[in-house]
Amino acid sequence: MNDTPRQYGPETQGATYLRGLGGAVPEVPTNFLTLEAKAKEKMSPEAWAYTAGGAGLESAMDANRAAFQRTQIIPRMLKGAAQRNLTTEMFGIKAAGPIMTCPIGVLEMMHPEADLAVARATAALNVPMIISSQASFSMEEIAKAHGDAPRFFQLYWGKSDAIAESFVKRAEAIGCKAIFITLDTVILGWRPRDLNIGYSPFLRGQGIAQYTSDPAFRALLPQTPEENPQAAAFQFTQTFGDAGLDWARIAKIRSWTKLPVVLKGIMRADDAAKTVSEGYDGILVSNHGGRQVDGGIGTFDALPGVVAAAKGKIPVMIDSGIRCGADIFKALALGATAVGIGRPYVYGLAIAGQAGAQAVLEYLLAELDVTMALNGCASPQEIGPELLALGKS
Ligand SMILES: Cc1cc2nc3c(=O)[nH]c(=O)nc-3n(C[C@H](O)[C@H](O)[C@H](O)COP(=O)(O)O)c2cc1C
Ligand SMILES: CC(C)CC(=O)C(=O)O
Questions:
Q1: Which of 46, 48, 176, 315 is most buried by its number of CB atoms within 10 A?
Q2: Which residues are involved in binding glyoxylate (predicted)?
Q3: What is the pTM of this model?
Q4: Residue 115 near residue 142, CB atoms below 8 Å
C-alpha cells in the first residue's frame, strides 16, 4: 500500500486537460448527469430498469438528491491547504479517501467482468470494496481479482441462519475486514420499472453466485446448480429475505466472527441508539438508493439524528444519492466518517468496464480534493458543520 497521499484533484484535472490538448476527450464523463445518460445508451432496457429504478413513485430517490441540494457550502477563504491528505482509516485499514463502493448485485447485467472489474478498479485506487451477497462471482473469485486491497462483505440474512453463518465465515476466510448486514431489504421493495417489464434477474439465475458456491445453500438442492440451474434459482427465491428478522436473531453473528459488524440501512435515531447499545461497530445510513421504502426520508436528512444518537461511540457512514465531490464534503461536514458510492460507479462499469468504474471513483476523489482546497481543508477531519448553510426540510 502506498502511504504517500496522492493529490487526485490537480493530477486528475491536469492529465485530462493535457489529453485534451492532443484532441482526446474522456470516454467516461466527469459529471453524473452526462455519465448516467451515456450509461443508459450502453445498457440493455432490463439493466437500465434494474439499476436506475427505485421503489414506487421513486420519491425516496428524489428525497436523497433534494436533501443534498437543499444544504449548501459556505466557502471559506485564506485558510491555506496547499497539501491535502484524504487518507481515511476504516476498521483497521487505511483507504485512499473517505469513500467505498457500495455492494451492488447482478453486475453481470452491466458488464461481463462485473464484480471482478470493480475489484480491480478499487484495488488500483485503494478504495475499499463492499462485496455483495448478490454478486455475479463468488466472493473467493472476487478476492482473487482484488489481491490484498481492503474489502468488506455485505450480508443478506435470509431464512437460513446456516447460509448466513457460512457466508460470514467465508468472508472472514477471504480477508474481509468487516461485515455489513443490510437491514432494509428483508423483502424486495415495490419496483415498478422491473415489474412493468416482468424482469427479475434472480429468477434467471443471475446474481446468485454467492449461493451456488455455498455448501450450506447447495445442501438444500436436489441436484447441483451446475446440473440444474433453474432449481438453484428457485431455491434462492425461497431462501432470500425474511420480514421477521429482528435484533435477537442478528445478534447470533457475534458467535460466528470477531470481525467488526456494521448495520446498513439504519435511518432513525432510536435504531442508531440501539445499534450502539447492542454493541455493533458502525452504522451505514442508507435507504438502499431509494429502492425500498417509497416516501422515505433522504439519507442526508436522516444523518444528523443518527450521528447525534451514536454520540461518537461508533463511526457513522452514509450512502444513497451521493453524486459528486460536494455531496461527499457535505456528508463529512455533518459527521459521516465515509460515504458509499452506488450507481455512479455502476454507470462507469457499464461504459468502460474496470477503467470506467475506476475513472468514476477517481473523479469523485479528485472533486472532493478540489472542494477541500477551495475551502481550506487539509484533511477530512477539517471539514466541519461551520462550512454548511443547513437547508430546512
Ligand atoms: C442495482 C443495485 C443493486 C443493489 N444491490 C445491493 C446489494 O446486493 N446489497 C446491498 O446491500 N445493497 C444493494 N444496493 C444498494 C446499494 O448498496 C446502495 O445502498 C445504494 O445504491 C446507494 O444509493 P445510490 O445508488 O443512489 O448511490 C443496490 C443498489 C442498486 C442501484
Ligand atoms: C433485492 C436484492 C436481491 C438485490 C438488491 O439489493 C437490489 O436490487 O437492490
A1: 176
A2: 50, 132, 156, 191, 288, 291
A3: 0.98
A4: yes
